[in-house]
Structure formats: C-alpha cells, structure tokens
UniProtKB/TrEMBL annotation:
This is NrdH-redoxin. SUPFAM superfamilies: Thioredoxin-like. The lineage of its organism: Bacteria, Bacillati, Actinomycetota, Actinomycetes, Micrococcales. It comes from the Bacteria.
Length: 99
C-alpha cells in the first residue's frame, strides 16, 4: 500500500496529472474524492489549514495543495530511497555435480 494520498475533486486536471506522475514513477497513490459526502470533514480540515485548491497531497513527511511537480519529485525520491532493495539471489552450491 502506498504512503501517498491524493485528495481529488471532480473533473480536476491537476489531480489527474498528479496521480499520473506518481503512477508513472511506480508509486500509485491512494486516491480519495473530496466531493464524497463521507469526506466532508477532511475537506473542512484542508480548507481550515489554508489550502484552497485540489489536489491535496499527503505523504508521511509533507502535505501540499495544487499541482507541484517539485514536491512530487521530492516525494518520489524519498519513496525510492525508502523502498527495500530487490533481493539478489546467488546460485546455490548445494547441488552435487555428477561426472
């Protein structure tokens, strides 16, 4: 599961671009719709914090509103650094050789 949440609005091109950037980098975000009735409290919280445009992006270390390629790139770099390295498999030497 991704550590990135993108709160969107209907017909939001900046929202779609933000989501596409994250997906293209291999970090598909959790997508939540701010217009959904169950997210009304979150919308109020975001507005109370001074944010006035979608998307609203939350990461473990940052949050912002609007299309911010600089913040997206920074978040992707942090996520890549935190991602576990793929396991390197060495050949097994436990098989016996037959002549």
């Amino acid at each position: 599961m991704s550590n990135i949440t993108v709160w969107t609005a209907p017909q939001c091109g900046k929202c779609e671009s933000t989501i596409s950037f994250f997906k293209g980098a291999g970090f598909p975000p959790n997508i939540k719709d701010l217009s959904a009735p169950e997210n009304l409290d979150k919308l109020k919280e975001i507005k109370a914090a001074g944010h006035s445009q979608a998307p609203y992006v939350e990461t473990p270390t940052d949050s912002w509103s609007g299309l911010r390629p600089d913040k997206i790139a920074q978040t992707i770099a942090v996520e890549r650094a935190a991602a576990p390295s793929p396991a390197v498999h060495s050949p097994s030497h436990s098989q016996e050789l037959s002549a």
